[in-house]
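Lecture 7 notes. Example A: sequence first, then its structure tokens.
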Amino acid sequence: MSSGKSIYDIMAGLEPLVERRNELPLAEFNEAHYAIKMVSKAVTANIKTIDPEVRVTLCDWQDKLMERAIQAPRSYEAKNVYTPAIHAYRRWKNVELMKDKGLAGYLLAKKIQGQATMYFCTKAEDYPYLSDLPDMQLLFSDEKSGLPEVYYEHLLRDYQKMDVLVLHGMYIETIPYLNEYRKLRPDGKVYCGLDMNSWWMQTTIWDNPQVHQFFNQCDFVATSCRMLRDALNRNPSVNFSCRFLPNGFYNSTGSKVTADSKVKENTILTVGRIGTPQKNNDEMLIAFARVAHKLPNWKLKLVGTIEPEYNSTINEYFSLVPSLKDRVIFTGPIFDKAKLSEEYAKAKIFILSSTEEGGTPNVYAEALFHGCMFITSSIDGADDITNFNELGYKYKIGDTAALEKVMVKLCNNATQADFDVHIPKALDYANRYFDWGTNIDKLALELFG
């Protein structure tokens, strides 16, 4: 594999196998899967002399093959999984237990029959979501946040238990911590989920020796949208193969998840921190006000904690369009997961007007499993969210006129008959890419397979 030509020849032979991956006999499939993995490693090791588009293709192939690879039954040796809050040496928040920050390590530990631990946290009463995660262990500390000594003292004391390290992003604090972990546990497994967006990717100095060392010490690196995955693999200064592992849905309460056209109402829903600059809620509010007369039977519902300073914006909005007071609904936060599930189930359309997100946001997977259609701004994960316009539409951030058009278009194509066609497509897509159980199977196989 020393020349580009030999790699291209190998890839030409492997491409038909990728296309026929679901039809191949198991032995032939396993051989192709292994060959692609080895070629990908060779390409990354020589990325400065090979067209990076080769790596883009190979990583896409690996992600596609994983869909079948995880179907084979496997058993794993029990390992302990640790998820530290390294960034700024802060404490984990309750809400992060039910996001990728907590679920990746928790569900991986359950898969391999080990113990999941998150550190550090404030005090037990600050984590009501812990009741939905049996066997999750939280480590508490009375020390002030921002003190690295707390983390390093724990590492030196407990490193023998830390078989798997789950990191979320590469930060100034993460780099030296991983260096110390590797000195103590060269045999440990490290997964780094890149909780990143385009700005983060473009401002990182990827050929920095410390950055290279960090990723050389990771066993598996993934991002939560394919656009970022491909952009990283296209960069010859990136010294790792980036894969696709999006934020998934985990039904922690076991309550019924309903995706039924018969219960859908004429509601456009968003869920998140209402009023933050990142969520850009003004854009959806303005667009809805401008098209409300064309959609007389529709409501816009915003679920989530409202930033205090945003209340003046809400008051001004209703003073300008008082006729919408009954049609634009601010519910505040809904912490009861079962009740929140009911909101997703009733909504026909889920909308994101964000200026940026770290790949695919957590709320997307929840809406997808409830059979929603989607409107999204042109954030990094927009094509993953709409599955390239099969499940909804995207518009350019800041183009309110374009948002108005897609809002009217999608609402007019959201009948019960439309949802009878849409929901099976949405659920198939959800189960393939946005189910935490499926994604943990992929992660476990990458780390231990």
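Example B, a different protein, same format:
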Amino acid sequence: MFLPIRDHNPSERTPVVTTGLIAINVLVFVSYHFSLSDRELVWFYAQWALVPDLVSQGYGPHTVLTSMFLHGGILHLAGNMLFLWIFGDNLESDLGHFRYLLFYLTCGVGAALAHVFSDPLSIVPTVGASGAVAGVMGGYLLLYPRARVDVILFLIVFLRIFSIPAWIWLGIWFVLQVILSGGSDPGSGGIAYWAHIGGFALGFLLAIPAWLRRGATSFWRRTHGHPDHPETRYRLTGSRIPMVRRR
């Protein structure tokens, strides 16, 4: 597992929209996940999750929006909200609160439609904010390609945290989505890779006006791909738990 845990790119504004989106996703998840029976959950998803076969026939168009606030489990929710927290605050700071909210929702809807187009006859309900979050990641890649991101690497018993430029992790993530999409059947359930691909590409495109306002390639040359403000510095400290030596 190659998981980002934070970036070194401080937000210049309080990320009220990002925080609000996380809160809404958590509250919505709690409202149904722990209270509905399996049978009731099937009915709930039938009403609010995205079912490509129905949407392609013109039924349940609202689900392209509502599905991005639903999640299938705690880990599903936690992963999406972690990525949103890491990458969303900076985009919100640059775009402004309202435009960032429109950006997020547009990426989510576009990702949902990309999933529908990938298999319009699928009857598998699809939920998750990952398409919208992928859009945020695409915008981040364009604006801050060399911002440092701390990632944690798990290899069985090996664990290590290290920093890499954002473009490396985001690029690896996107390429994996493209590769894995070729070996998956969208109609069989699992991960909606085309939603990730569509959301990421749309987010990258929608961030171009903000990139142009900053000077486009001259902005990259001036900052060398880094954020145009001082980065956050983290200092790892030793554990305060006393060590007991074996005799």
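Note on Example B: Residues 74-95 form the longest helix (22 residues). The chain is about 55% helix and 10% strand.
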